[in-house]
C-alpha cells in the first residue's frame, strides 16, 4: 500500500449516516449527505446513500461531475451559489441549486430552457451567519421573481449556520426560519418541498427538546464523516470518529536539538515550531507536509508532539524510541485536515471495507440470496 494514504472505512460512514437518519427521521428531518470535504468521492457518497441519505449535495460543480461520471443518478444539489459562468454545467448536472442572486437564477432559467429541463431553486436565507444568503425582508420579493421565471421552479428555502461566525442556531432563529417558510408559501403560491435548516451545527438543536417545526432537511457532512458536532468539536454519541485514517511513512529518526528561534526564517514554518524545548527526547521525520494536509489538524500519536512541518516534511518528537525508518505512523484528522488530504494529488484513498461486499461475510448460510455483482 502506498504512503501517504487515507484509509477509509466505508461501513463506518454508512453506519454514521444510518444513526443520524434514525435519530432525525422521527422529527420529520431527512439527511442530505454533503460530499465536498471528500471532493465528491463516489464510494463515500454511495456509503452515505446506503446509510439512508435521501440525496447528495456538494459545493463545487467539479465534484458533482465526478459523482455523475461514476454513474450516480440520484438527486444532487449544488449548495454553493452557482457561478454565473457555470450556469449551463449546473443545470446539466444538478436537479437543484442554492441561490441568492436573481441574476444567477435568471441565467440558470435560460440555461435550463436551452437544456430542455426545469431547474430547482432553493433560496438561501441569511439567518445570522453573515456568509451567503438573502435577507429575510427581501426573501418574498426574490421568491416571487423566481416563481414568475420559466425554466426554474421554486423548491424551497435553506439556512446556514456556524460557517463564518462559528455560532450554531438558536431555537428563536430556527422558529423565525420556519415562519419564513409559511410566509413564502402564502405570498408566492407553491408549497416548499425543501425547508433545509442547516448543517452539522444544527444537530444539537435538531436532537434537542424542541420540535423541529417545518424543517424537513439537514445537509450533513462533518457529522457523518467524522462523528463530531462542529461548533463544540464534541463527538456525537454512538458515532464513529475514525472512519478516516491518514498514514505516513518515517524517513528519518534520531535526536536533534530543537530548532532555535534564530532558525525561524520562514513565517509558514515558524507557525509550527511550537514545541517547548525538552518536550521530546527523540524525533522522527515523516514524508508528508503542508502540500498534503493541514498539519495542525492532525492528532498526534499518543505521547508524541508536533515539532514542526514544511511543505514536504513532518517532524514529530517522541518520548520513546521512534519507529524504524520505513514504518508507518497513523493519524486522525479534523475536518480541515481531511478536506486538504482528500484533495492532495499524492495521497491515495484506500478502502478498508466495501459496503457491498461486507454484508456477504456476515451472511453465511444465506448464500442463495446473495446478488454478487
Ligand atoms: C459545507 C456545507 C454544509 C455541510 O456542513 P457540515 O458542517 O460539514 O455538515 C451544509 N450546507 C452548506 C451550504 C455548506 O456549505
Structure description:
This protein is of the alpha/beta class and 373 residues long. Helices cover 30% and strands 22% of the residues. The chain contains twelve helices and 16 strands. The protein has helices at residues 10-24, 42-50, 61-69, 87-93, 102-115, 136-148, 171-188, 203-206, 222-226, 267-270, 335-343, 358-361; strands at 5-9, 30-34, 55-58, 76-78, 96-99, 119-125, 152-159, 194-196, 217-220, 244-254, 282-286, 298-299, 305-309, 314-318, 328-333, 348-353. The strands form two sheets. Strands 1, 10, 11, 12, 13, 14, 15 and 16 form an eight-stranded mixed sheet that branches. An eight-stranded parallel sheet has the order 8-7-6-5-4-3-2-9. The radius of gyration is 23 Å and the shape is elongated. Pyridoxal-5'-phosphate (PLP) binds at residues 34, 36, 59, 79, 160, 199-201, 219-223, 230. Its cofactor is pyridoxal 5'-phosphate.
Averaged pLDDT, please?
Answer: 89
Proportion in β-strands? 15-25%
CATH class of the largest domain: Alpha Beta
Low-confidence stretches: 355-373
What's the oligomerization state?
A: single chain
Bound molecules: pyridoxal-5'-phosphate
Distance between the termini: 25 Å
Number of strands: 16
Radius of gyration: 23 Å
Enter the CATH topology name of the largest domain: TIM Barrel
Net shape: elongated
Major sheet: 8 strands, mixed
**The CATH H-level homologous superfamily of the largest domain:** Alanine racemase
CATH architecture verdict of the largest domain: Alpha-Beta Barrel
The secondary-structure class comes to alpha/beta
Helix coverage percent of residues? 25-40%
Amino acid at each position: 500500500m502506498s504512503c501517504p494514504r487515507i484509509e477509509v472505512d466505508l461501513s463506518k460512514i454508512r453506519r454514521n449516516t444510518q444513526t443520524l437518519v434514525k435519530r432525525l427521521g422521527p422529527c420529520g428531518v431527512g439527511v442530505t449527505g454533503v460530499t465536498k470535504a471528500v471532493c465528491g468521492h463516489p464510494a463515500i457518497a454511495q456509503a452515505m446513500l446506503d446509510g439512508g441519505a435521501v440525496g447528495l449535495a456538494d459545493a463545487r460543480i467539479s465534484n458533482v461531475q465526478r459523482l455523475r461520471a461514476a454513474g450516480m443518478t440520484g438527486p444532487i444539489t449544488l449548495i454553493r451559489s452557482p457561478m454565473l459562468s457555470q450556469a449551463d454545467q449546473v443545470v446539466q448536472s444538478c436537479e437543484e441549486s442554492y441561490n441568492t442572486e436573481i441574476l444567477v437564477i435568471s441565467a440558470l432559467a435560460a440555461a435550463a430552457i436551452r437544456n430542455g429541463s426545469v431547474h430547482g431553486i432553493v433560496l438561501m436565507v441569511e439567518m445570522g451567519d453573515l456568509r451567503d444568503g438573502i435577507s429575510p425582508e427581501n426573501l418574498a420579493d426574490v421568491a416571487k421573481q423566481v416563481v414568475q421565471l420559466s425554466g426554474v421552479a421554486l423548491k424551497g428555502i435553506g439556512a446556514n449556520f456556524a460557517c463564518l461566525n462559528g455560532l450554531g442556531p438558536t431555537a428563536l432563529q430556527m422558529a423565525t426560519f420556519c415562519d419564513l417558510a409559511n410566509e413564502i408559501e402564502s405570498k408566492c403560491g407553491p408549497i416548499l418541498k425543501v425547508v433545509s435548516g442547516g448543517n452539522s451545527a444544527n444537530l444539537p438543536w435538531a436532537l434537542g427538546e424542541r420540535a423541529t417545526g417545518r424543517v424537513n432537511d439537514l445537509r450533513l457532512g462533518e457529522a457523518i464523516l467524522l462523528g463530531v458536532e462542529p461548533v463544540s468539536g464534541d463527538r456525537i454519541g454512538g458515532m464513529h470518529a475514525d472512519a478516516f485514517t491518514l498514514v505516513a511513512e518515517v524517513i528519518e529518526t534520531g535526536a536533534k536539538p530543537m530548532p532555535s528561534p534564530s532558525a525561524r526564517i520562514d513565517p509558514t514554518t515558524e507557525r509550527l515550531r511550537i514545541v517547548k524545548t525538552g518536550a521530546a527526547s527523540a524525533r522522527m521525520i515523516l514524508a508528508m507536509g503542508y502540500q498534503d494536509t493541514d498539519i495542525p489538524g492532525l492528532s498526534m500519536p499518543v505521547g508524541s508532539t508536533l515539532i514542526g512541518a514544511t511543505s514536504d516534511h513532518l517532524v514529530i518528537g517522541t518520548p520513546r524510541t521512534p519507529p524504524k525508518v520505513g514504518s508507518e505512523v497513523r493519524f486522525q484528522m479534523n475536518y480541515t485536515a481531511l478536506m486538504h488530504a482528500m484533495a492532495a494529488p499524492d495521497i491515495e484513498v484506500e478502502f478498508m471495507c466495501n459496503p457491498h461486499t461486507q454484508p456477504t461475510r456476515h451472511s453465511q448460510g444465506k448464500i442463495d440470496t446473495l446478488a454478487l455483482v
